[in-house]
User: Fold this.
Amino acid sequence: MSSAYAQRRARLLDRIGAGVVVVECGREPRNPSGHDTAYHPRPSFHYLTGFSERDGVLVLSRSSEGETKSTLFVLPRDAKAEMWTGRRVGAEAARELVGVDEAHDLTELDEKLPGLLRGHADLYLEVFEETALRAKLLGWCNRRVGAKTPADIVPQTLHNLTWTLAQMRLYKDDTEIEAIRAAVAVTEPAYRRVMAECRPGLTEGDLQAVLDGGFLRDGGQGPAYGTIVASGDNANVLHYVNNDQPLRDGDLVLIDAAAQARHYACDVTRTFPIGGRFTPIQRDVYQIVLESMHAGFALARPGGSMDAIHEATMARLTDGLLALGALSGSRDELLEKKAAGPFCPYSICHPIGLNVHDPSPRLDDAGHELLLQPGAVFTVEPGLYFPADNAELPAHLRGLGLRIEDDLLITADGYENLTAGIAKQPDEVEAWCGG
Ligand SMILES: [Mn+2]
Assistant:
């Protein structure tokens, strides 16, 4: 299991040239009553180790002569502590599992880490993460400013590891793509079930239970982000989280929910009729959103960009808003003014991976634009939102809100839609809904 992670560590060191990298795993947060809640290892740490025991610290280095070293610090075996917070593998097993040169108990960190910094002029860490270790590291770098030999220097230049890793994480390797596929494989049956079971009289919470239960039951780690079940006008709240309203016949329900598996997220949205059949106006608006999505898909290929996909999608939404009477005037002027913005006020695309909103770097270190290349995985999620209380809108649109979201993988000659198996064409959606 260590090979994909070892390759990432080697690629990271190739990228930085010479220097020392320190990454922390983090730990579960405590709620105010003192209970631990489930946690996700810090993505950068998981990306480089595949290890997720709390409090771990990874130190990687390469000297200017090209000599590399990898060291992992882990919680020591401790029967009493393990009884409360779970099993620990201990240093020796962790060394083998992760494939690092050395592993030590965390109790030795303060004694050993200053020595691992010595001889390196550059330190890479997640600069904006305020942790107790960061304060210590900076303290250690502050000592010995007057080093007399190169072997004695300590880092004097701090680099943001988040930035370096963001560029690597933009293009997924095979292990990552498999993990995202695993998340999709858990997500798809949950959509099948929720569309089949949805009917007037249930509540949004009933549908959330179907989804979140499926995300756990079918081999996932639960929802990758807070499940959104927004019926009727609630769909016009983009990050609706209450999920507590009754489902009414004749309304649509927007579901933005997806599973996490092997610490990777997917990100899916579907909007479907609660009663099983779209009304004519619902179908018209749905068709516009779907066509805008396909206008974006058409530009998904190596050398393309998420910005270009955004623009193409927004242009098609603008055409649709003209056809619906929500906008009027010259198409060119409307595009120029970004007049569709209020109806879809966010970026259509974002990368996904260890985070549901993975870092989205636009430029590499040389200032060149980071274009879509094989391995890039990102969402395309157009929507149209017509709040019920917006009196400026044509009456027949008020209270409608829809979004459709799929996850694309860029391949050598185009793209693969990873979430294409979840019904999206309106007739197929009605069929899944039993309408
Ligand atoms: Mn999304």
